[in-house]
Amino acid sequence: MKVSIIIPIYNVSNYIEECLLSALNQTYNSIEVLLIDDASTDDSFIKAKNIVLRHTRGENAFFLVHEKNKGLSAARNTGIKASTGDYLFFLDSDDILPLDAIENLVYAAGNDNPDFVIGEFTLQGSRDRVKYPVVKLCDATVLRNNKIADNLYLKKWHGMAWNKLVRKDVIFNYACFFYEGLLHEDILWSFYLAINSSKMIVCKKNTYIYRIRNGSITHQVEGKRFDSLEIVFSEMLRISKEKDIISNPLFFKYLIDLKIYFFKELLRTNQSIFEISKRITKVNLIFREYNKCFNPLCSVKYNMKLLAYKLPIKLACIYVKLSI
Q1: Is 117 within 8 Å of 164 (Cβ atoms)?
Q2: How much is the average pLDDT of 298-319?
Q3: Cα dist from 71 to 80, 185, 260, whole Å
Q4: Which has the minimum average pLDDT: 34-38, 63-67, 139-143, 317-321?
Q5: Rounded mean pLDDT of 209-231?
Q6: What is d(CA 281, CA 310) in angstroms, rounded to the nearest whole number?
Q7: For residue 264, what are the CA distances in angstroms to 189, 231, 254, 309?
Q8: CA nearest 192: which of 225, 239, 224, 227?
Q9: I need a surface site. Which of 34, 50, 67, 240 has the fewest CB within 10 A?
Q10: pLDDT of residue 137
Q11: How far is CA 141 from CA 41, 156, 233, in A?
């Protein structure tokens, strides 16, 4: 089984060496490393090239270049289309792989030909080098069909693209590419993957080190994040109607939690009540078919959460801050 490790690069000069070496030094031999430079303005790409030139496994690394910055989704899609592996693994360029990560994931896959394999991961602070406990996944080692998506809705496996060994033909057969131009693209992509997969295997070993750093996209609060989440809501609702998922109570609760996350993130910004109100109104329009006073799909607890989108905006802000 050949594995393609896809690493988008954009202005990560301080991190690319440790990231790239962790990929090239994997104990599993049958790998290729695809490095996609998304028009970096620092020396990240030059550093990566120098590492590859010096490394004994440098012949397994390949470079692709975007002349203009297109974003993380586009860089990953470029890597997917150029890959020659049977399985793909997405590695963010400021993160690190344990040296036996790919070997452990491949071993977990065995001869079962799963749609994807997911491992456990460690959180690491970028300044103090503190490692947090390994994040544990669901108790099951194999999930099939609807149970895959149900466990995503229950947050028993994590909706990020990284730390998953994904069979390449699943991506092509079901068009599970990344929605370009979005932030929070992983939420939508993981949803695509979950509803189109028939077999998922859980590897009970640490196969990824996620670096927490304040300058990353995840920690940037800007208007585009909220524009992106609105698109995520619209797409998830559209697909859920097509595939008759909307009646699944677990899915609906998952959407409610995303809506509350959206509201809480709005409150973390310096936007005025007027701007927050405009955002909430847009989300209510997206969910207009489902803005009932009481939704029978949900428990009382979840219906209480929905009050945040039904109260007058000033009262709603206080409610979210104090009650949810």
Answers
A1: yes
A2: 84
A3: 15, 10, 26
A4: 139-143
A5: 76
A6: 10
A7: 22, 18, 15, 12
A8: 239
A9: 67
A10: 74
A11: 43, 12, 30
The answer, yes or no, to whether residue 219 has pLDDT greater than 60, is no
| Residue pair 119/163 in contact by the 8 Å Cβ criterion | yes
**Poorest-pLDDT segment among 29-33, 178-182, 284-288:** 284-288
In which band, very low, low, confident or very high, does the pLDDT at 29 lie, cut at 50, 70 and 90?
very high
Closest CA to 2 of 127, 118, 102, 75: 102
Please state, in angstroms and rounded to a whole number, the distance separating the CA atoms of residues 161 and 47. Answer: 25
Residue 20 near residue 48, CB atoms below 8 Å = yes
Instruction: Report whether 161 contacts 94 (CB < 8 A).
Output: no
| HEC string for the chain | CCEEEEEEECCCCCCHHHHHHHHHCCCCCCEEEEEEECCCCCCHHHHHHHHHHHCCCHHHEEEEECCCCCCHHHHHHHHHHHCCCCEEEECCCCCECCCCHHHHHHHHHCCCCCCEEEEEEEEEECCCCCECCCECCCCCCEEECHHHHHHHHCCCCCCCCCCEEEEHHHHHHCCCCCCCCCCCHHHHHHHHHHHHCCEEEEEEEEEEEEEECCCCHHHCCCHHHHHHHHHHHHHHHHHHHHCCCCCCHHHHHHHHHHHHHHHHHHHHCCCCHHHHHHHHHHHHHHCHHHCCCCCCCCCHHHHHHHHHHCCCHHHHHHHHHHHC
Contact 232, 258 (CB under 8 A): yes
Residue 14 to residues 72, 94, 104, Cα–Cα distance (Å): 18, 8, 28
Is residue 293 over pLDDT 60?
no
Q: Tokens at residue 172, please?
A: 């092509």
| Sequence-distant (≥ 6) Cβ neighbours of residue 160 within 8 angstroms | 186, 190
Distance of CA 233 to the CA centre of its chain: 15
* HSE of 19, CA atoms in CB hemisphere, 13 A: 27
